[in-house]
Protein 1
Amino acid sequence: MIVTKTREEIELMRESALIVSKTLGVLAKEIKPGVTTLQLDKIAEEHIRDHGAEPGFLGLYDFPNTLCMSPNAQVVHGIPNGTPLVEGDIISIDCGALKNGFYGDHAYTFAVGEIDKETEKLLQVTKESLYVGIREFKLNNRVGDVGYAIQKHCEDHGYGVVRELVGHGLGRKMHEDPEMPNYGKRGRGKKFIEGMVVAIEPMINMGTHRIKQHRDGWTITTQDNKPSAHFEHDVAIVDGKPELLSTFAYIYESLNIESNEEDEFRQKALVI
Ligand code: MG
Ligand code: MG
């Protein structure tokens, strides 16, 4: 059952989403060769708690940490550890926060120093596909419209779209209805309605879409060990249109990147 949110609830959800956005912005400054994912995890936990929120993933389904940290061929759900990042790595960071009873859930794949052109293209295309998908999240469209758009954009570049892991409704629970696959057929699936909030999150592999699960019960890796990227935003339907609740603006501020990619999905300008 889809649980829609009132305008007031959507504003509370924006608060939770922005705590995650700010956390990713803080991490963006710290990501460099030599830092460990466990160090980044501690920074994130402290930052979230300093903002009066709780880490959204810690303890959820018994996950042991604040961040899912998935380097290189890891797709999602990697567990932070003491291995230092090295120049040329990519690191997908997925972060959740819980405040006022509502979750934020938001992810970005970062480059560690200089990365090769092929991997840079994977990151760029995956992020583009996130916005291509968000554009379809509007009144009277359906789940399949978002999935179709993401899949087409990524497969046109020869990439693999992970099937087993999907986006989701978001609210008082981290995972609500509906499931939001990153593949699908136009006009199929549940219809979008005013007040829905979802996490849209393409998980895109450079090679095969196939994945494997590690023995730790969490970490998901590409079957061919080629890199994978993951970008995620929280989005509501407000006045029939997609309204972004999360933002990459804090990351871009940290990294000195100019971008207007989010402007079309915001009814009011974001003040950061
Ligand atoms: Mg997430
Ligand atoms: Mg999610």
Protein 2
Amino acid sequence: MMKRKLYIETYGCQMNFADSDVLAAILAPRYGRTDDYKQADLILMNTCSIRDHAEQRVLNRLREFAAMKKRRAGLYIGIVGCMAERMKEELLEEALKVDLVVGPDAYRSLPALLDRLEAEGEKGLDVELSKEETYHDIIPLRAAENKVSAFVSIMRGCQNFCTYCVVPYTRGVERSRPADSIVDEARRLFEAGYREVTLLGQNVNSYRYNDTSFARLMAAVAEVNPLLRVRFATSHPKDLSDGLLEVMAAYPNICRAIHLPVQSGSTSMLKRMNRKYTREHYLQRVEAIRRFLPDASLSTDIIAGFCGETEAEHQETLSLMREVGYDSAFMFKYSDRPGTFAHRHYQDDIPEEEKTRRLNEIIALQNELSLACNRKYIGRTVEVLVEGVSEKRGRQYIGRNTQNKVVLFEPTEAVVKPGDYVQVRVTRCSAVTLLGELA
Ligand code: SAH
Ligand code: SF4
Ligand code: F3S
């Protein structure tokens, strides 16, 4: 029998992208994956609730799929991921044409829900959160074209309860995946030709499985092979320890790139955000990074216009950005999220145009900082892990250096393939890429 076709459209963070490969594995006995939604018998939207805008995008796209369903009997539509968890049965409202709503911890129930849907036309809902589920025994069916670099989930959930954030409500409590299963997966990936793994969690520094801390886990993954690059995301500034920085420094294949979301440069804002650190603590962690890993790049996340943010507090964010000199940043306007502490107790009182102004200032400054960081590489030779070929500006190879900077270089006589390490002399740069030639 021809297998039916599954199309997964993924929104949100890397954890959702990793989960889509878990979903594909769970459904593999009955569905083959396609990247053409027009061919699909089952469409799953793996959704994100982090900002209102993310949800609106999904709802707009869902309207397109729902219209398609009218023309095609037998097409099923499922909403999975964080919106499924946040909105629950609301998504089963008739007009949306959704057949399945399944939260991030309930993916194993999909086959049973599909059975009932196919046999009896019964819509399926499972949004039960779990204290244990890590899908550690499921080998993700990786769809990404890039067979060089893979994401590996090492934990799920978050219980930091930053006051603006919906994640603790959509992903449940924090739990760590068994260390052995992580190291095994890294080893299998290396044997399959992968040369880079990124260990994923909302707050990887608090990973712990029995006696294995995050620092121990990192060391174990780094020892799989010196040719396997190891990255991780995301670190919470409140518990990025010197111990971890020491381990990083000891293994050249642990990448010199740290994503350390600051959110705000103002201690009073950080308190309102329940981030559990001060501006001074954050700067002291940055200082430790510079001490242990002098060549590390630093990136961050910043929120503009959170509840009650004064102009002075906004200026503190700008001054902290200058002081750190970030290589790059993800920058957002605050978006009020139902259910969060901020939604219940604070007022979303910064006018939209003021949020926009502050965000634009932050973005403009970051562009300057990124360019300044990249300029320092001009004239230097960097090791690049080749990921593929970019056709954007003629034919160029594309890869990244240990600092996670995208490096483009021209093809030469030398045969270069994805997964190779090459030395590239940087000759030019923009705020987002380094350009160079094979050294
Ligand atoms: N666990 C990670 C981040 C997860 S969400 C951490 O703690 O750093 C990614 C980013 O989205 C956050 O760092 C934050 O900058 C942003 N974000 C989260 N909630 C938001 C909201 N309500 N409005 C705007 N940005 C938000
Ligand atoms: Fe959200 Fe804070 Fe958890 Fe990050 S640490 S996912 S920002 S609650
Ligand atoms: Fe979005 Fe959920 Fe990730 S809200 S950012 S997909 S954990």
Protein 3
Amino acid sequence: MKNNLKILIAAAELTPLAKVGGLGDVVGALPKALINLGVNTRIIIPFYGLIDRNKYQIKLIKNNIGIGRQAVNLWQTILPETRIPVYLIEHGVFNGKNIYHGALADSQTDTRKFTFFSQAVLACLKATNFRPEVIHLNDWHTAAIATMVKTGGQNIKTLYTIHNLANQGVIKDKGRNLMAEGILNSGLVNTVSPTYAKEILTQEYGCGLEKILIKRKKQLYGILNGIDTDFFNPTTDKFIKRHYLVRSLAAKSANKTALQSQLGWPRDKNTTLVGLVTRFVRQKGVDLITEKFSRLNCQFIFLGTGEKKYESALLSLEKKYPDKFKVQIKFDEKLAHRIYAASDIFLIPSRFEPCGLTQMIAMRYGAVPVARLTGGLKDTVNDNNGFSFKKSNPAELYKALDQALTIFYHQPKIWRRLQLNGLKQNFSWEKSAKEYLKLYKKLLNKK
Ligand code: ADP
């Protein structure tokens, strides 16, 4: 087996430079764990207009690299608090204020933009002295690289990771489906949890690509994401009011009363606080929370942004029941941490969930998850650390939450056991990085 493996990770997002959701978190955290395993890892992303070039000390390494009739400039920085090199490709198409043209949607502006990025990645590599053995591709944005490598005869292997099968990058006038190309043309394919890897072979979850996924079934793996356990850590978190540990869980309620007060509610440590932090889109099942939930003996705090119809439905609950619901429509990392630390219960009612990070973050903060049993939620939430429901409807979610509340109020010992079981779980990236390393090695042993 080779030691000093060279891996290039290509993606549309990278936390903290450019994040929209879980994809950015994965690309920002996996390389740190790979470096610890001795893998020579580098990252390449577009140089978006929103990336702060002074904050990250980004330096030009080569200008005017030709891509057909276009030219790009290649810049370099390091992933903060690491020595991991990050390449950034600069071109006018990446100058906009947002990473995606429409919220995660595969608009035609985006398919053009990311196909160009994919071409540029291979051209820019020639301008560096870094010769990766494997390019690790992530979602449809970088899938075209798999096709180019396959047809170009380069001596490079590709791993394609599916983070969310629902967004596919369909180029309408050319009938190209970039997600499908990634699946078919890469050396190996994986997705972000074992359960989702099985689910996507079915019509229910396959988003129309189940047949081609079945073709690659033997080369399709499921590797659960980790979370950044330094960034999400109740003993050191710089955003929260009071730090706490497994031994001092009672201090958690100081975070609850601080958040209640910040939100304009009276301080009340005895009422259960139910949190939810997510994108407000159909996938996340926020519409399962209905007016009937106002009857439950608890308070709800919802943080997120997304589609107007979901935002308005939640805001109207807040308007009607101001003592029960607080709804914050924004992206706010600090408030998110405060909600994890303050919540007794955390909701993840997703219709589908490739992996899901918020249930793991919640458990790390001693909040007990109530989750729909699907995808990565099925792999992480069980009767020992949380509550779950099977069918995606309001009544099932209501029942599961009601059950959780009964235990919270009447069986404190059982409640504490659930919290402790969640807190003790190891969601660090180390284990998953070892699984990725196995796949990289498997690729190198392939003909
Ligand atoms: P997805 O990638 O589908 O959005 P994940 O559960 O994999 O969902 O990852 C979501 C990540 O984004 C978590 O770190 C979560 O805390 C964060 N997040 C989502 N919405 C917000 C928000 N409005 N403000 C702050 N953080 C958010």
Protein 4
Amino acid sequence: MTPLAFPVDVYAARLDRARTLIAASGLDAIIVGPGPDLAYLLGVEGDTIERLTALVACADGETAVVVPRMELAKVRDTAVGALGLVVSDWVDGEDPYRLIEAAVPANAERIGVSDGLPALHVVPIGDRLGVRLELATPVLREGRMVKDAAEIAELRRAGAAIDAVHRRVPGLLRAGRTEREVAADIADAIVEEGHRTVEFVIVGSGANGADPHHEVSDRVIRDGDVVVVDIGGALPSGYNSDSTRTYAVGTPAPEAARRIAVLERAQQAAVDAVRPGVTAEQVDAAARDVLTAEGLGTAFLHRTGHGIGISTHEEPYIAPGNGLPLREGMAFSIEPGIYFPGEWGSRIEDIVVVTADGCERLNVAPHGLTPAGDTPGS
Ligand code: ZN
Ligand code: ZN
Ligand code: ZN
């Protein structure tokens, strides 16, 4: 059995809070399928799709878990068993939707479903209940967006683990190796430094660094390359790391170093802007304004950041147009980047947690253009 990531009272508190939010939202019940929401609420991991597993949580406080019998033992080992929740199991050939119907309040009019519940189940559930299903996202987002002390401690550990990997990157990245070879070594390091899984490894050298969605290729790294390394993994608790640094192999063009110094200032400006009450878009603007003032505004192709926790990308999104005021306990990335198609790119990314009067930076590896690899002639 996999131990629960947190003591059982943490899950009891999360479930209580969800019930309060359900009642406040006017929904009669929510149906939550496998994925980050179920992992958050009950510690239930895994993502069985075709056989229905779901939590039904009602505004009146009733809770039921519908689960295929073959998953029953595994689910009982989570907060489901520890909290003594009602479990209804079913076997192949039976209709699991009748169990959902039995769990929701009679005459329910408003039912929310988690955004990860597959259409494969949403459509039959809607037919069976005879109601138009709504997204439960507003209820579920609220709980996950503001982290408690136990979650922040996990994110801090994740940040330290990925920083340890970044400290090893200069020794792995050198002229003559391919991006793929370097990425394989980084993936090993991610696990060695305490992650359970490698979530992603981006090694974007030279012109590949100008594509924010590039992952890896067989391109051979050359002397003078600027290399974007964006990496992350999940700890055994399920909480994620995500950090980007930009490395210099040999001596890149002075103009690259100059622009990356501007990017470093932009990233710092956004970090400095974070505190409760400031909006997500104001933090985005803090980074964007520095780049725009230096003529680099059009090279910044994406939002400044995303929330992180039990999933790598979640609310709050630090983006233009998001007027959401930040609150203490929110955790998100600050990752402005600049991209010059056909030439090179750079991104600097830290995770921060909003504190009472500012923020705590969870990644502290050096920020600017970081030397890597053999120097010419060595
Ligand atoms: Zn993207
Ligand atoms: Zn990243
Ligand atoms: Zn990120």
